[in-house]
């Protein structure tokens, strides 16, 4: 699976952005997908997760109620709708995929495939 993230940009606090992650592969629905983010000088941080069918989603407490992860398996696309953005949301955002669920969804090391990242900057 190859992943390509896009949709980042500069937005004022309180604004919205929608990130997209385009995936290759014929069995994309077999893969669970997550969004992570990494701010300068910080470790990569779990943001949101969606199961292969899209029937279940999970969020970090810091984004719960503001971000929504979704997917369109017919288009091989994953989305992250980000509302009520805060300056502390500033980071490079990555999409990641895994086929099996042997480890915690919040651990970067449990994902086999990564997109190249897209920068999100929220100004105060």
Provide a descriptive summary of the structure in words.
It is a single chain. The chain has 124 residues and is mostly beta strands. Helix content is 0%, strand content 48%. It has no helices and 11 strands. The chain has strands at residues 3-6, 9-12, 17-23, 32-38, 45-50, 57-59, 67-72, 77-82, 91-98, 113-114, 118-123. The strands form 2 sheets. Strands 2, 4, 5, 6, 9, 10 and 11 form a 7-stranded mixed β-sheet that branches. Strands 1-3-8-7 form a 4-stranded antiparallel β-sheet, with no helix packed on it. A hairpin with a 6-residue loop joins strand 5 and strand 6. It is globular and about 40 Å long. The termini are far apart. The mean pLDDT is 95.
Tags for this entry?
seven-stranded mixed sheet, mainly beta, four-stranded antiparallel sheet, 48% strand, 124 residues
- Beta-strand residue fraction: over 45%
Structural category: mainly beta
**End-to-end separation:** 37 Å
SSE series = EEEEEEEEEEE
Number of helices: 0
Helix content: under 10%
Mean pLDDT: 95
Strand and helix layout:
Layout: E1 3-6, E2 9-12, E3 17-23, E4 32-38, E5 45-50, E6 57-59, E7 67-72, E8 77-82, E9 91-98, E10 113-114, E11 118-123
Parallel strand pairs: 2-11
Antiparallel strand pairs: 1-3, 3-8, 4-5, 4-9, 5-6, 7-8, 9-10, 9-11
Structure described in brief:
With 124 residues, this protein is mostly beta strands. 0% of the residues lie in helices and 48% in strands.
